[in-house]
Design goal:
The chain is an alpha+beta fold. Helices cover 16% and strands 34% of the residues. The strands form nine sheets. A five-stranded mixed beta sheet has the order 2-9-8-4-6, with no helix packed on it. It has a five-stranded antiparallel beta sheet with strand order 10-12-17-14-15, with no helix packed on it.
Length: 642
């Protein structure tokens, strides 16, 4: 263990004296340095102050010299060399064509320093800068003193204390100037000048968009001499279009229709020859309307049309995809064939509206197949429209709508119906049917064979249809049949009643109109039949007696070839509906008798009640059987115990 060293008191005192001595030496040095530095700073500060005082004196003398200018020098810049401090608040010009006044005004605030009397002044001059692309003229910007409370300028603008500033430049693009007097004495001038567009006049109707003006500000002395450079600031006005004047197309009221003729009002299926042609094959009728509805103002948007086959556009601007001008209440755009066959898709759009796509068929030069059918079971002697129908398709399987001709297969057939030497042109139905319909002339009672070809002569034809037979029936009406289209109906269900004239053999005859086929009163019934809003092919009544039959059947209208149809609605309650009609004076006496027809209306409520009643009867029977069986079991148990 190392013993602790002992330090003598003498050494400790010596060390303390040395430490105290060192501290004293350091204190003296620091004090001396601080005093010297402080004195140096005081000395430099005094020198700097003398220099600053000298500079201020020189500057004051200089400014005094500069302020000694001729008395006509007036408005001085507030900040630096700027002549004025300017601020603008944009205005709103109101609806299209509306009067623009202080209620829609913007403002120009001007601050300047006038050093002399009220002979000083400054001017505000407006210059048209920009306007909407469709605007043909920019109304002048007018001024008025709108703030007389905080303004320190004279409360006059061109001698007018309030309201519109004097100006005759209300319908031009040139400048409009207003003069503002300075203060009554030297001092700062604060002015707030209202700015608004001139009211619309004939030929200057404002349309929607932004109108911008540049306002130039310049000061003048009493002699009219400009004292400083011109400064400027822009002010704008946004004109909001009224709904009725909007040029933006609205999808709910804008339309685009595809048709085979101009001014289409609905879409139709279009099949056109693919051979290239400068003659339009179809038309797109586009009508752009704003949000006010179909009777609103036409919009002003470009129309983009694209097709996958053929060309679209105008006689001078057409192609597969074009952007076209729209500037009318409705515009017809052409569709051309360019030699390409197939099914085409057409798209139509504007910057605001995209219309549903349209389809068009461009068929090949010749058909590939012709399928004929006979919709009319009995032809009459004379003309019979739509007696033979043909579906034609090209090699691509697309509907073919070129010219087809029907002819009698032989000269013997032509004696009954049709023509053998000169084929008859058929008609293509461009509506929803999209088929060829051939008229056949009946000559004698009998059956004739008919074919359809793709040329006006048999020799020139390259495609021939299947052979069909037509029947010419010249028999007279001898009686009639009465029937429903179904045997039973639900309550209030639609039903169709048919009156069918027949010959002496009971067979249907050709299409005809027979006066007094029925006796007075027509069809009668004790049931409450009603008619729908669409009515019937005869009348909204069962009482008609003159009967016209249909040549062909239709699944849409319910027409049946050789019959007249009435459309009615059954009663709401269940039961049997019986109708009766008596033969009229057009029939032989033996046929002038009552004919009836019946149908059942199934009342779902009555049927349910009957079912419940039947079920209750069954349950009662089962209960009786169960009781009998229980009694039998009990009797057997007693015998077993005995």
């Amino acid at each position: 263990m190392t013993p602790k060293k002992q330090v003598s008191p003498a050494i400790r005192i010596l060390r303390g004296e040395r430490d105290a001595s060192a501290r004293a030496t350091h204190l003296e040095a620091a004090t001396r340095k601080f005093l010297v530095t402080t004195n140096e700073r005081k000395y430099m500060s005094t020198k700097t102050n003398f220099k600053r005082i000298a500079l201020v004196a020189i500057a004051s003398l200089g400014l005094g010299v500069l302020s000694s200018v001729p008395s006509q020098a007036t408005i001085t810049g507030v900040v630096g060399t700027s002549q004025f401090t300017l601020a603008a608040v944009n205005g709103t010009a109101g609806l299209t064509g509306a009067v623009s006044d202080s209620t829609t005004a913007g403002s120009i605030s001007v601050t300047a320093l006038a050093q002399t009397a009220s002979t000083d002044s400054y001017t505000l001059t407006s210059v048209a800068k920009s306007r909407p692309a469709l605007a043909t003229m920019q109304p002048a910007l007018l001024f008025s003193l709108v703030d007389t409370l905080t303004s320190t300028s004279a409360a006059t603008v061109n001698g007018v204390s309030a309201g519109r500033a004097s100006s005759t430049l209300s319908t031009t693009d040139t400048a409009t100037t207003v003069i503002v007097a300075a203060g009554a004495s030297a001092g700062y001038v604060n002015s707030k000048i209202g700015a608004f567009m001139d009211s619309a006049t004939a030929g200057t109707l404002r349309i929607a968009g932004t109108y911008t003006y540049t306002v130039l500000v310049k000061s003048f002395d009493a002699t009219g001499v400009s004292t400083n450079a011109t400064q400027q600031i822009d002010i704008s006005f946004v004109v909001t279009a009224a709904a009725a004047d909007s040029l933006v197309a609205n999808a709910s009221f804008s339309t685009a229709f595809l048709g085979t003729a101009a001014s289409a009002t609905s879409d139709v299926a279009v099949s056109a020859l693919a051979t290239a042609s400068d003659t339009p094959r179809a038309y797109l009728t586009v009508s752009l309307r704003n949000a006010t509805g179909s009777g609103g103002t036409a919009a002003r948007e470009s129309v983009t049309i694209t097709t996958t086959i053929g060309q679209v556009g105008t006689s001078t601007n057409r192609g597969r995809s074009v952007v076209l001008k729209y500037d009318a209440s409705a515009v017809d755009y052409n569709i051309y064939s360019d030699g390409t066959a197939g099914a085409g898709t057409i798209t139509i759009s504007t910057p605001s509206v995209t219309f549903p796509t349209k389809s068009i068929i461009f068929y090949a030069t010749a058909p590939a197949t012709l399928v004929a059918s006979v919709p009319t079971p009995n032809l009459r002697v004379g003309t019979n429209a739509d007696a033979v129908r043909v579906t034609a398709r090209d090699a691509n399987g697309n509907l073919w709508a070129g010219d087809l001709y029907a002819y009698a297969s032989t000269a013997a057939d032509a004696l009954i119906a049709g023509s053998n030497a000169t084929p008859v042109l058929c008609t293509f139905d461009t509506g929803s049917d999209q088929r060829h319909e051939c008229g056949i002339t009946g000559t004698l009672a009998g059956t004739a064979k008919i074919k359809v070809i793709n040329a006006s002569t048999v020799a020139a034809a390259t495609v021939t249809s299947n052979e069909v037979s037509v029947v010419v029936n010249s028999n007279a009406v001898a009686s009639f049949k009465l029937s429903f289209d179904k045997a039973s109906y639900a309550p209030t269900e639609r039903a169709r009643i048919y009156v069918t004239p027949v010959d002496s053999a009971g067979k249907e005859i050709a299409v005809s109109t027979t006066n007094n086929l029925l006796a007075a009163g027509g069809i009668t019934t004790a049931s409450s039949l009603s008619f729908g809003p669409a009515g019937t092919t005869q009348a909204d009544s069962l009482t008609v007696v003159n009967i016209t039959t249909a040549a062909n059947s239709s699944s849409t209208s319910g027409a049946r070839a050789g019959s007249a149809v009435y459309t009615v609605f059954m009663p709401a309650s269940g039961g049997t509906v019986t109708i009766t009609a008596t033969g009229g004076s057009a029939l032989p006496l033996a046929a002038q008798v009552a004919v009836t027809a019946s149908a059942t209306v199934t009342d779902s409520g009555a049927a349910a009640l009957a079912a419940v009643t039947a079920l209750a009867t069954t349950v009662a029977s089962l209960k009786t059987l169960i009781t009998t069986l229980t009694n039998l079991v009990l009797k057997i148990q007693k015998k077993v115990k005995a």
